[in-house]
């Protein structure tokens, strides 16, 4: 099989799986629930020029800690691309650009475009990258792209003013985008420690740049979260999250989860490259990616960072490192003149990666509102100033469509009594005591309850559905129902 033929097959495979992402959204007509917070921010900036700082549509009000760069960047894009299309399909465009950077980085690292192309195909077949930005667009997805740009710039970093400026600018953008930049910088400082341990030269330039970016990032996050730190301390960042959700947000990583999300091929090839970087072939750039990966895995296994974001970054690193193992295999077969085996190996790698993706796609679930849900909320006339209770993930969606107060949502930082309200909302949906439900609704002055089809499936046989006296159906579309609360504790 000729080299050109295998390249065409690799490119074809890459295109097929990019198209597969698009096809996976064919039954999804609206952005996921996760996108509605950013969509609200975009609409607010278009109207007032400023993001939502104090949210009057949140129960008891709340002050957000806005991500200014993300909000304004997405607002700018929304003038070029219709907002719905931007948040529904923008993540796919983000993935395509990220894959191009993966190709560019691995080509520089391993000086072999065929290996770089194979690594890119493997990346496109990784489930966490496949689903990470489907039907949504947020700061984490944007940070992944900036992180790849940072690695690409770091590889080119030399005593050249233009290249230094590029690296610093990208790092500053990363710092403004996400607190994940703190973890990347922690990995970079660990990289300097590894250089010292391995008796490799530490460049003064790297120390100065990492120090500057590190101080800037810490200062920016202190300024951003100073109100939270001053009143509640740093523990407020996770103490505001309801206890039942802490395990989901900061789930401790296990080896089976790591392998299934990253994929068998990039995991073992990446682990081999990490071993080589630490104990055999002391290559600076492999060592830097290895250092960041070690920090990420350490934080994931102790549950100190968000599982989804941590896995995304870890997967990117393992994919970049996997090219080293592929290059070693390629060089080995070239020496033995086993070129045909090499081609079969490429096909085998693609097959295993494809099986891993297809197995996980079957369980792919994108939580997104239907057209009927949107029409239901838009057409229903709610009294102004009243509060609507829905599920946790639907909170921002309800606020976006109705412009009315919602009882709670998944933005927990600086939300008053977030844990208590989460527990009480569960009691309202799940309790079999009518008195308990009515007393809680009366206490929080909740006048409307929105039960989507999904919420009903998660809370079967709810008293809200069964009691037609206290809970009057105000509007309904295809098993999505809005109830008006008619009873109080006094009657």
Explain what this protein looks like in three dimensions.
The chain is mainly alpha-helical. 67% of the residues lie in helices and 6% in strands. The strands form two sheets. Strands 4-3-5-7-6 form a five-stranded mixed beta sheet. A two-stranded antiparallel sheet has the order 1-2.
Task: Describe what is shown at a glance.
The protein has 491 residues and is mainly alpha-helical. Helix content is 67%, strand content 6%. It folds into two domains: 3-30 and 81-361, no CATH class; 371-485, no CATH class.
Class derived from helix and strand content: mainly alpha
Number of domains: 2
The topology string of helices and strands comes to HHEEHHHHHHHHHHHHHHHHEHEHHEHHEE
- Mean pLDDT, to the nearest integer, reads 86
Outline the low-pLDDT stretches: none
Q: Main beta sheet, described? A: 5 strands, mixed
| Number of helices, counting only DSSP H or I runs of 4 residues or more | 23
């Amino acid at each position: 099989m000729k080299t050109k033929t295998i390249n065409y097959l690799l490119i074809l495979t890459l295109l097929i799986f990019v198209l597969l992402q698009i096809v996976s959204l064919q039954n999804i007509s609206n952005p996921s629930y996760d996108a509605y917070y950013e969509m609200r921010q975009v609409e607010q900036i278009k109207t007032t020029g400023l993001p939502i700082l104090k949210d009057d549509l949140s129960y008891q009000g709340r002050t957000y800690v806005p991500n200014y760069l993300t909000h304004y960047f997405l607002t700018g894009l929304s003038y070029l691309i219709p907002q719905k299309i931007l948040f529904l399909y923008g993540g796919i465009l983000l993935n395509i650009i990220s894959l191009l950077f993966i190709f560019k980085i691995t080509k520089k690292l391993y000086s072999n475009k065929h290996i770089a192309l194979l690594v890119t195909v493997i990346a496109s077949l990784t489930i966490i990258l496949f689903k990470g930005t489907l039907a949504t667009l947020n700061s984490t997805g944007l940070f992944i792209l900036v992180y790849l740009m940072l690695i690409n710039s770091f590889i080119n970093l030399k005593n050249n003013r233009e290249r230094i400026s590029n690296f610093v600018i990208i790092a500053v953008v990363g710092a403004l985008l996400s607190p994940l930049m703190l973890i990347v910088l922690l990995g970079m400082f660990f990289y300097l420690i590894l250089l010292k341990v391995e008796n490799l030269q530490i460049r003064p330039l790297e120390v100065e740049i990492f120090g500057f970016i590190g101080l800037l990032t810490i200062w920016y996050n202190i300024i951003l979260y100073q109100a939270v730190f001053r009143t509640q301390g740093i523990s407020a960042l996770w103490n505001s999250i309801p206890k039942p959700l802490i395990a989901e947000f900061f789930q401790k990583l296990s080896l089976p989860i790591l392998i299934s999300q990253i994929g068998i091929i990039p995991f073992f090839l990446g682990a081999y490259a990490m071993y080589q970087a630490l104990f055999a072939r002391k290559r600076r750039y492999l060592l830097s990616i290895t250092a960041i990966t070690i920090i990420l895995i350490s934080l994931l296994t102790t549950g100190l960072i968000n599982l989804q974001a941590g896995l995304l970054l870890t997967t990117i690193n393992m994919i970049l490192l996997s090219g080293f193992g592929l290059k070693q295999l390629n060089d080995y077969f070239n020496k033995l003149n086993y070129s045909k085996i090499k081609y079969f190996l490429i096909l085998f790698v693609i097959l295993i990666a494809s099986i891993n993706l297809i197995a996980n796609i079957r369980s792919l679930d994108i939580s997104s509102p239907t057209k009927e849900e949107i029409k239901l909320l838009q057409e229903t006339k709610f009294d102004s100033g009243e509060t609507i209770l829905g599920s946790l993930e639907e909170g921002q969606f309800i606020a976006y469509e109705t412009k009315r107060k919602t009882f709670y949502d998944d933005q927990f930082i600086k939300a008053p009594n977030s844990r208590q309200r989460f527990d009480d909302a569960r009691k309202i949906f799940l309790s079999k005591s009518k008195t308990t439900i009515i007393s809680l609704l009366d206490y929080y002055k909740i006048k409307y309850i929105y039960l989507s089809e999904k919420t009903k499936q998660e809370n079967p046989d709810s008293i809200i559905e069964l009691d037609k006296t206290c809970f009057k159906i105000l509007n309904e579309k295809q098993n999505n129902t809005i109830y008006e609360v008619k009873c109080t504790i006094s009657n």
